[in-house]
Amino acid sequence: MNTSTKDKIRRIYKALPRMNCGRCGFESCGKFARAVAEGRASPFGCWQDPWAGYTISEIVGLKVPAYRYGLQPASLPKPGIGASPGALGQEIRRLSKHVDDILVRIEKLRAGV
Questions:
Q1: Are residues 56 and 87 in the same domain?
Q2: What total of structural domains would you count in the chain?
Q3: What pTM was computed for the model?
Q4: Using alpha carbons only, what angle is made at residue 43 by residues 39 and 46, rounded to the nearest 5 degrees?
């Protein structure tokens, strides 16, 4: 294994929560990190911290758009930095309204409107 791959494994491992839960399908975070560095696993395989996938994608050189599901890059939380309670409340209200709109559309479809 070359130094570049070892460095990627180390950096990927550092980005993970290191809980060794196994939900990713590997025995440990270290084995998951190695599989990602070798291209055998998705950077988004960590169930404990799915957001780590963005950092891991950068480490392995993948370009991943951060604006899926209506999220804009500026609204994504920075790794290791918690959002303020006010910002979280505002995001919850925004998402709740979005869910309410979807539920109204579903009801209209059921009613045949």
A1: no
A2: 2
A3: 0.57
A4: 125
